[in-house]
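Entry for the shared binder. Reason: the reviewer on the internal report wants the predicted structure included alongside the sequence.
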Amino acid sequence: MSQGTTADVRPAAGLPGVPPVARRRRRRPSFGRISFMAVFLGLPLLIYVGLVLWPFGQAFYYSLTAWSGFSPPKGFVGLDNYARIFSDATFLRAMRNNVILVVVVPLVTIVLSLALASVLTVSGSSTGEVRGLRGSSLYRVVSFFPYAVPAIVIGLIWGMVYNPRGGLLNGFLTALGFDAFAAFPWLGDTDTAMGATIFVMVWAMVGFYMVLFVAAIRGVDKEVFEAARLDGAGRFRTAVTITVPLIRDNVQTAYIYLGIAALDAFVFMQAMNPTGGPDNSTLVMAQELFRTAFTQNRWGEASAMGVVLALVTLAFAALVFVVNRLTGAEKDEGKRT
């Protein structure tokens, strides 16, 4: 062969039976990469383990003992504490009240927040540019104000408003001619105690989530709402079929946070009805846990209640994610992309 035909022919990498010309060498992690992962991944993970997982593990361990709270844990009792609390009518009533709160409070709060947010953003004039009501900034500030007030203060204020003797609500109703409410015990009647408390919780939270939804709706392209208007969609249909699907992730986040607040509800309940209300009608698990630990010194049993409350909260969050997935979250995400 000539020199032109005996040129160096290198085997192509990737062909069967032909080794690659040169293997890529793995890059050693640099100091900057290691320090970045240590600070932004390792440190938060360490804090999470130390402040969340480790205390939860301790609580679970204490729940298996007959711990009195003032001495080292001793007297391993296994699952006896769990059997005891699930056979306790008071704790079961508290759990039932928490279930009522977690069903009603997030649903009512989100519906009202979405309605108000839609009014302030896209439910204004039916002609011209898509916009909300005039002076919407003032409405947002006024609605957000209750959320800026501490929950304990809100509970104490509404406790005075509901006061059967000289309370603002009874005084107002009596002035309108409803003499039956002259001394009506809103928080002392089994028929109204829970409803009155739910009203306060919704009143305290609806402004914040309205502002959250306003920001989410304003992130949607106005052309979407203009197209719906041209197609003849009314305000209600626009809110249900366009607004809600487009801000589904925000609604999911709000529902989880509201559910967690409803499962706790300790501050509101303790401020308005520290004894649990008439016939334990407003008693929640956090109140029963507090009473069992700090009044009766049964910290092992109280730890079992805390573990149950944590598991119920995690189950609720998981249920919200599953429902959101089954109702077409991925399909809506695909449409947006």
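Summary line for the report: The CA atoms of residues 235 and 251 lie 19 Å apart.
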